[in-house]
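Posting for a labmate who doesn't have an account.
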Amino acid sequence: MKIIKILTVLVMAISLTSCVSKKQYDALNLNYKQCIENIAERQREIQDLKSANSGLTSENNLLKDQNSALKSSLDACLSNTGKGSANIDKLIGEINASNSYIKRLISTNSKNDSLNMALSNKLKRSLDNVSDADVDVKVLKGVVMISLSDKMLYKSGDYNVLPAAQEVLGKVAKVINDYDKYSVLIEGNTDNIALNSSSLPKDNWDLSALRGTAVAKILQTQFSVDPARITAGGRGEYNPKTTNMSVSGRAENRRTEIIIMPKLDEFMKLMDVAPVKN
């Protein structure tokens, strides 16, 4: 509401340009544009938070359903007088262990989501001077995804990274190195325009894979990202973000994605933890 009031005052001020100097008008116009940009940034952050919250809500509901099923089993056990107290004690122990497991899982998920949001915001700030059309950073399904346009990274049909792109990759590498407990997945993607050549790259599969590994090598050799954390590959034309029927759509599909996520072995350990009796 405060921002809306400020914008209202700015709009009224701009409408009275005949009563102010050119310098005052330019200052008001600059403030107005900055307010619009700030609102857009806040809206993007709100949308990211809504996405993270939606995922947590779904997981929480699933765990509640599991807990409810265990409680139903307990009720059935209590109503059956033929069962011994030992079985009841065992079931109560399982319910208590399940409740403890649920709390640990929710706590871990909340911590991961908070870290991912902080990582995303740090990346956005470090890449603030890069064109939005060339770089897109978002939190999606529990991971941080950086989408880089092909025109910023490579020449058409080529997989060698352009020197001008290394500044952006350096900023990304800085954040990756700061979050050294995360894994890094690099995926090359193309549009569906056929690429036929007798030498590499021979087709879109080759091109996407070579682009993914080219970025991986830059991160490793020039910015000291641990190669043991990196997985690189290509998805060809088979993972489009939008339609290939338009020039703009094909340009959006030709991208390299850097996905930063919790290490797989740590995630699997969490999923393998069975509730145990306290």
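Reply:
Got it, the structure tokens are right above this. The two ends are 50 Å apart (CA to CA).
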